[in-house]
Each structure stands twice: as structure tokens, then as C-alpha cells.
Amino acid sequence: MAVVKVIELVGDSPNSWEDAVQNACREAARTVRNITGVEVLNWTGNVGPDGRIDEYKANVQVAFRVDEHRS
Amino acid sequence: MAVVKVIELVGDSPNSWEDAVQNACREAARTVRNITGVEVLNWTGNVGPDGRIDEYKANVQVAFRVDEHRS
Amino acid sequence: MAVVKVIELVGDSPNSWEDAVQNACREAARTVRNITGVEVLNWTGNVGPDGRIDEYKANVQVAFRVDEHRS
Amino acid sequence: MAVVKVIELVGDSPNSWEDAVQNACREAARTVRNITGVEVLNWTGNVGPDGRIDEYKANVQVAFRVDEHRS
Amino acid sequence: MAVVKVIELVGDSPNSWEDAVQNACREAARTVRNITGVEVLNWTGNVGPDGRIDEYKANVQVAFRVDEHRS
Amino acid sequence: MAVVKVIELVGDSPNSWEDAVQNACREAARTVRNITGVEVLNWTGNVGPDGRIDEYKANVQVAFRVDEHRS
Amino acid sequence: MAVVKVIELVGDSPNSWEDAVQNACREAARTVRNITGVEVLNWTGNVGPDGRIDEYKANVQVAFRVDEHRS
Amino acid sequence: MAVVKVIELVGDSPNSWEDAVQNACREAARTVRNITGVEVLNWTGNVGPDGRIDEYKANVQVAFRVDEHRS
Amino acid sequence: MAVVKVIELVGDSPNSWEDAVQNACREAARTVRNITGVEVLNWTGNVGPDGRIDEYKANVQVAFRVDEHRS
Amino acid sequence: MAVVKVIELVGDSPNSWEDAVQNACREAARTVRNITGVEVLNWTGNVGPDGRIDEYKANVQVAFRVDEHRS
Amino acid sequence: MAVVKVIELVGDSPNSWEDAVQNACREAARTVRNITGVEVLNWTGNVGPDGRIDEYKANVQVAFRVDEHRS
Amino acid sequence: MAVVKVIELVGDSPNSWEDAVQNACREAARTVRNITGVEVLNWTGNVGPDGRIDEYKANVQVAFRVDEHRS
């Protein structure tokens, strides 16, 4: 039996949306073990006056196993 | 880089829906720092036999920064 | 065993959205007993030419127990 | 025949969510005529460090008639 | 005033979907007190080559009171 | 021509979710004739302190023919 | 103050989807007064072996005023 | 590169839902060029006391190219 | 036991949306047997410069029985 | 690289919803290989005059690998 | 008080989805000032006969402040 | 008249989400002709213990014309 817990984070990056998701996963890995997967809920961005996207942001859910050792 | 975490709470109040949301945010502020925002997911209420709303309840998501100090 | 029935109403009020929901619940209490709760599905309003909201409207679901006495 | 146009706005207020919706409708009334109604899509807020909501925000759709005079 | 917190888990079981939800609730009860309710968000399963479901999985939200003792 | 009406109920049972849906259908059959079908909208449950589900609840829509005899 | 009640019906017709909606509204008018509007939730149909649609069906919500006479 | 803009309108007609959508598109064509397509978001109608639909209404999104000439 | 399979198609017609759905069903009947029903997921259309709808399109799901003969 | 295809089926059973899902998966396994998982989209049922559920039905998506052998 | 307006656009690009979103924002910046953010609603693409994506398209909402100067 | 069929696939790639979508389209092009477009339904990924995304996955719908040659 392996119960998984799901937490929601918002990652951001000045470079790309993939990088924003990666940052959210990396941050999650600092505080929880046994991460298994990520799902993107929403893509947003901050936009400067000239229309250039200067901050990529992604709402994600990160899943991690919580009770691997218990049968 | 500023990763944000999102938690879900249900606040309640005998007075109003705005108060219910405020109670949820105040409770969150007791246990987490750097709260940035709130989004209301759902408005419900308990209703007495005479049809009077005697408890206002609100499902909310509260967002807070988790890693401000790390570049 | 307590089966609950759910009906949908639209309440309105010239004063506020909370009052509109309260009116819907009060009207429901005129025709059904054992009301337990209310959930707001949608908030709308009529707006006058100057942009002032002159009628607050709320689509709600009202729940009430229908068979309390039967085990 | 009366065709209606729908625009989306985000209103805000330091006081309440109803006030935030009212501000959005008032702003719309500055630039368009024949406003008929408003629908709230989403309620959010900015929250200070102590958990107090210091800015109420509402995504709304405002509808207005565009061709009343044409049969 | 009773604020409730909501966490998301994925339970699994080789036996049935109800058992998968029960496992998620039991795991939650190991780490949090005052659990009040569960809502199922999604039912999935792993399927073997012969089409037999060999793992029942359920995404659930578990709610628990966080501040019962405070008025 | 056969017009069908749809009502919403919440059934519950201490035994299982299927039993909860069955209770809602049985209750509907006490007050309406020509029931044709049921659709489950939502599965929830009450959970005791030890994480055991002690009440299974299901929001359902029940459909029944209202005017079979009229061509 | 005018509270509106909303009921859900499924109309059908061998001729067209508009006729199916019209049949549902006509059936509603047999049992309730002060109907104000209809909203279509879903369009389905029965299809014969040759691919011809032989029954048009529409899930609709019909709204009617319930308390006109009360201020 | 061809950026498309999307506006939302509500068309109406005493005759049919297709006519209501057509009226919304025709109205859009009065004020914008390069219309490419329409999507129906919602079908509603006004209903008279006898249950007859006397006004067909359709929420639509109309898309039109805004910058065809720019590479 | 009768398992049903569901496929998704987009039908189109220069005449009407009902015709577009009918075309999708007729096309499905060319390649599969035992069609039972159709559900419309989405209504769109191509629009000419004058705002006239010149192509009606409908996303539909068509259902057909796949294993009638097996108990 | 492993691309997965997703098909939609409706399984049914006179016994239970789990059995209905199992029947859909078993039927899928008759015509496709490398099935990996199932997701339930919707639970419905046929109901007899006495309110007893006499047919359990489940809309499901079944996923299967289509190109395992290609890197 | 700062009311924000939201418009919907579809950007495209032969290179990538991020570029498609950037093109939509750049086009918006040609006609409106004070752009604050973008949200992606939908990712689609045109695909050539060999399966190669030859046009990346993104439905986006762009938000911009409309009345900053008015208190 | 051109009827379009829609199939659902899950593509994956160790490199990027765009590559995952491209792989799904390329796999579709192996078995069907006249592909016209792709829509992304969902972005997920497998994540290693260090939080690095090691597999990008995308649920997509691929559309292709099925009856071009028939008027």
C-alpha cells in the first residue's frame, strides 16, 4: 500500500515556463522526499509595458509517497 | 526566484462571508509567514429552520512565499 | 438514514448579495421543513446606466432533510 | 433585436468585495453606455503578513446593449 | 469559530475503491487530528494485460479542524 | 413524447457508497413514479478520529418520466 | 423582492432540438406558473442503425417566479 | 504571424437559436473586419406564460484577425 | 452485459448545426455498427467577412454497442 | 519513448459499479494489448419502479501503450 | 483603486508555444498601455501530414490597468 | 463536407513538453492520414528524488479528416 500526498505550489522563472515548473519541483524536493510526479494546473506570466513576458509562472501540483515502508 | 505554496482552508463566521474568509486568513497567518493572497473557491452556509443563515462558510486557497531568501 | 433533497433558487435584493441569499433561504423555509444548508452557485446583478448595482442576485442550492423519521 | 456585448474587468477595493464589483461597474460605465448586468467570475484578495485582507479583488463580466436602435 | 484545513491524498488498494479511500483516510489520521470528512475527486486504477484491475486508486481531499480550542 | 424531470438528492449509509445511492433512489421512489435513472454527482463521507469512514454520502440526480401518457 | 425557482427537465422530439426544448417548457407550463426563462444544459440524441438521428433530447433548466405577490 | 482577437456577445432572435447566433455575428461584422469564426458558449431563452419560447438568446465568442498585414 | 464504445467526431454543414451533427452520425455509421446515441460537445462555425455563418461545425461523441452477443 | 492511446467505453453490470468498470476493461483487453490504466469519468445507473438500481453503468477511459517496441 | 481590463487573443508562431504567447502579448502592447499579465487558456497547433507541428497557437487573456490615475 | 475524427494520446519525452506533444503527433501520423491539428489537454511529468523532471508527458487530442474524398 502506498499513499501519496499532493501539495500545490507556484513556481516562477525569468527564462521559460518549463523552468518555472522545474523551480517549483526543486523547491518541493527541499522539504519532502519520494516525489513521484507533477501536474501543471495553470500557466500565467508578468508582462512588461512593451508586451515582453518578464516572469513565467506555473501553478503545479507535486505528488510524493508518504508511507512506502508500511505494507 | 520566489516559489509560492498554496494551502486550502474552510473559514466560518456567524456574521458574514467576508468575515469567514478573514478568519481563514488569520488562522493561516498563525502557522505560516509571507502570506500573499487568498482566492475563494466556494461559499456555503448552515441554515436554521426559519431559513436564517446562522453560519457563513467559505472554502479558500491561501498563498504564501516559501523561499524568498534563496536566489 | 437521512436523505437530503436539494432545490435551486435565485434570490435577489436591492441591498447586498448576502441579503439576496438570505431571501432565497427564507422563501425556501416557507414551503419546506428541515433546511440544513445553502451553497451559492453564482453571483449576478442588474446595473443601472451610471454603473450602480441596483439589484443583487444569487443562484443558490438549498438542502433539506426529507426522511428524518425513517431509520 | 438587441445584441449585447460582454467585457471582462477586475475591480478592487480596500473595503469589501461588493465595493470591488461596484468599482468595476462604475469604471465600465465611464466608457460604455446601456450597461445591463454584471456577473462575478472570481473573488480574490491581497493579504498582509498578519492575515488581514487589505485589498478585495473581483473578476467580473459586464454586459451592455450595443444596437438597441436597430430593429 | 472552527477553521478547517483540507489536504489532498491518493489512496490505493488491491481490493476495492472504497478500501483505497479508507487507506488514504487512515494514513491522514496518522499525522493529523480532528478529521471531519473526505471527498473523492477522482477514481483511477492500474490494469493488467488481461484487463483485470489490479490496483484501485482514489484522489481524495481530507478535511480536519485546526483551531477547535480557540473561540 | 416523454418529458423527464430531474431532482437532486443526497443519500447516505453507514455501509457503502452504493448503499448510499440506493437509499437516495428508494427515497425518491416513495414520492415519484416512473423513475428511469440515476447519476452520481459527488462522493463524500464523514470520518471518525481514527480515520475510519463512518458515513458514506452521495449527491445524486434521479430522473423520472412526467408525461408518458400524453403523445 | 422576486425569488425564482429552477427545475431541471429533459425534453425530446422526433423533429429538432428546438422542438425538444419547447416540449420541455410546455410540459413545465402545465404544472408551474410565472415561467421566465430556459437554459439548455446538454444536447443529446438517439441514433438509428443508419446513423439517422431519430430522437432529439435536451437537458434544460426552467426558471419561474415563486413569490411575486409578496413585497 | 496572425494574431486573432476574441470578443463575447449575446445575440437574440424571436425565430431560432441559429438566427440569434447569426444576429450576433452580423452585429460584430458592423464594427470589426476579418471575422474568422464563432463559438457558442451558452443557449438560453425567454419563455412566455404558456411555456412558448418567445426569445432565443445565445452567448457567443467571435474571433477576428487583427494583424494580418504584419509578418 | 453490453459494453458501449464512444468516439469523437466533428461534423460540418453549410446548412445548419443539426445537419452538421447528422453528417457526423452518418459518417460514423459508415464504419461502425450498433450506434445508439450522440452527444454534442461544442458548436462552432466559420464566418465570412459580412458576418454570415458559411460553415456550421459540431464536436460530437457517438456511442455504439461493441459486444452485444456476449453475455 | 512510449506513446499511450486513450479510448472511451461505457461498461455495465447488474451487480456493482466496480464490476461495470471491470467489464469495460475486460472488453478493451479483447481488442487492444498493453493496457496500463483506467479512469472513471462518470457513474450512472438504470433504476426500476421501486427505486432499486438494476443496472450499474460507468463511463471510463482506458489507456494502452501503442509503440513500446520503438525507442 | 486600479481597475484592470481583460481581453482575449490567440497568438501563433511557427517556432514554439512560448513564442506564440509572446506574439499575442506584443500585439496587445501595440494597442493598449499598462499591460500587467497574461494567462494561457488553451494550447493548440496545426499539424502537417507527417505529424510535424507547423504552427503553435495559444488562446490567452491579457490584463491591463485602465484607470490608474483616478483614486 | 469534411468530417473530422478526434483521438486521444499521451506523448512523452525526456527533453521537453513540446517534444512530448510532437512525439504523440508523430505516432498518430504512423497510423492515420490527413492529420489537421492537435490540442493539449494536460501537462504532467515524472520527477526524480532531487526534484528534477526526468519525463515530460502531455495528454493531447489529435484531429484528422476522415472523408475528404466524399462530397
TrEMBL record, chains A, B, C, D, E, F, G, H, I, J, K, L:
It comes from Limnochorda pilosa. It comes from the Bacteria. This is Dodecin domain-containing protein. The lineage of its organism: Bacteria, Bacillati, Bacillota, Limnochordia, Limnochordales. InterPro entries: Dodecin, Dodecin-like, Dodecin-like_sf.
